[in-house]
Amino acid sequence: MTRGPGRPPADRRDAVARRLLTLAAEDIDGFLAGEGRAGATPFPQVLSHLDPVAILTRAGYSPDRRTITSRWGSVEAFRTDAAVWALSKLDRAAEPPPVRMAGDLADTGEPTTVVDATIRTADTLLHELVADPRSYLIAHLAPLLSSNADGADAVVDGLRAEQDKWTATYAALMEVTGSRLRAGWSPHRLALALQAMISGFIIHQRVQPDDYDYARSSSYDKLSLFADSVLTFIIGVIDFSDERRTSRQELLDRWGLS
Prior knowledge:
The chain is mainly alpha-helical and about 260 residues long. It is about 65% helix and about 0% strand. It has helices spanning about 15-30, 45-50, 50-60, 65-70, 75-90, 95-105, 110-130, 135-145, 150-175, 185-205, 210-215, 225-235, 245-255. Helix 7 (about 110-130) packs across helix 12 (about 225-235). This is TetR family transcriptional regulator.
């Protein structure tokens, strides 16, 4: 029986499929880390570079493509499945850094330590994600995910799990610090915004490392640009005046235009 593209094997007991997908995910990691290639590689090769024969050989199986096509229907379906497998991190036992660090930040406990803990968490999280080649895969495959519901489901479920963890963390921090969010904001909306923010930082930190390192050394408090941006964003969304005004209303008032 074949499986549609982007759908991880329905039977997780299929040891052969798990082995092949895990090796393919390792190949994707190597590709994204720049291993084994000379010069620039065209964007589409993030998937097309996967050689099913080489993967079968590494797995210790006969280099017969039918081992793959009998399970997935085609090599392209296998490649798509491998990308979804990698994005979902199904080959990794450890919790993703965003999930683990959300729990650590939620355990901060004392309001006086929240600011320093936020800076430390922001810097550590960005560092770990930038160092993980797989962090860049979703940027390569956004068109695939938007057009492939089966493939998108597993990836979106993982993203939502991270968002749920951070939503709970932000709600806990609001309670610990006795703060309220500005009108129109919620812990879930906060999680969505900060997740999008770090996604952009991950990409630009890799493309422009010197610029982002300079942004730290040139800052007044020597904060990283990401940590400073997170703190600035938090200042904007917390309703310190407790007047329940939206960000738009607050800005117009500050400029004397309300």
